[in-house]
Write a structure and sequence with these properties.
Length: 287
């Protein structure tokens, strides 16, 4: 029964990952000036990887990695603030309207991500609705250009693009909570707020971690959001933009592939932490 999943993993992860390694440790064809992947590990050259690591740790690319991490952290915090109440309401309070709420949450998946970002471009223009509303509330200038390399614009775009991916797994975790534990807390005299803090929130940590990992991984490699909402401004450039530039807009595809590997290494640390937390939670649950 594991054969289909194994074949899927090999075809869509192992082989592409090895191809990236072959490009990162490969060379440039001296005649055609195109990528010459080194498919044999014996022919790998680490010079480009060493140079890229030097630029990441102490060079110009280090700022891009830090900026990407800050944007992803801010967007993840926004997803938590928006997504947790929505997931909690859907799982614990929606009642008969749960199906309708879930349908509304799934609805954005029917619309192209590109189209949704272009809609935000219209909203954030100097004469768009965002400035009009902020001006009416006396919270900002009516002609402020949000599309001119403002970091809040990128964070808003990331939150809007990925919050549905955050809500659905968190909803599944909250929906599976043992109702008897919540009833026991109330029977012991705890208030609704105290029950939430002491019972619901701790029990939802695995789902919260899973939702965070699901959105954090693609956020760190995202390049569409910055490209469409700020015109690819260097002030808001993320790692994904650098990878796209090296792979498609320059003659240094090895640097782009090296950045992919370095980013994967950083994300593997986050994934490892998630697995450790989940394993610890499961051991505590069995004990």
């Amino acid at each position: 029964m594991a054969i289909p999943g194994t074949l899927w993993l090999v075809a869509l992860f192992v082989i592409p990952a090895y191809a990236i390694l072959a490009v990162a440790f490969g060379d440039i064809d001296p005649i055609l000036r195109t990528t010459a992947p080194a498919w044999s590990p014996l022919a790998w050259s680490g010079s480009t990887m060493v140079d890229t690591l030097g630029r990441v740790f102490g060079g110009d690319l280090g700022k891009v990695f830090v900026r990407t991490g800050l944007y992803a952290a801010a967007a993840l915090a926004g997803c938590c603030l928006i997504g947790y109440p929505v997931a909690y309401f859907t799982a614990r309070r929606a009642g008969r309207s749960r199906g309708l709420v879930l349908g509304l949450l799934v609805l954005p998946f029917w619309i192209s991500y590109l189209m949704r970002m272009l809609a935000w471009v219209n909203l954030l223009q100097p004469d768009g609705y965002v400035n009009a509303i902020l001006s009416a509330l006396h919270l900002g200038a009516r002609d402020h250009n949000w599309l001119d390399g403002d970091w809040p614009t990128v964070v808003i775009g990331l939150i809007y693009g990925y919050v549905p991916f955050f809500i659905l797994p968190l909803y599944a975790a909250l929906e599976r909570l043992d109702e008897r534990l919540i009833e026991a807390s109330r029977d012991l005299g705890a208030s609704s707020f105290s029950t939430f803090l002491r019972v619901t929130l701790p029990l939802s940590v695995p789902g919260l971690m899973a939702a965070s990992v699901i959105v954090l991984l693609p956020m760190c490699g995202d390049y569409y959001t910055n490209t469409y909402l700020t015109g690819g401004s260097p002030r808001t450039e993320m790692v994904g933009n650098q990878i796209e530039f090296f792979l498609r807009g320059s003659s240094q595809p090895q640097s782009g592939a090296s950045l992919v590997i370095i980013l994967m290494a950083f994300l593997l640390v986050a994934m490892g932490y998630y697995l450790v937390v989940i394993a610890r939670t499961q051991r505590e649950g069995r004990s």
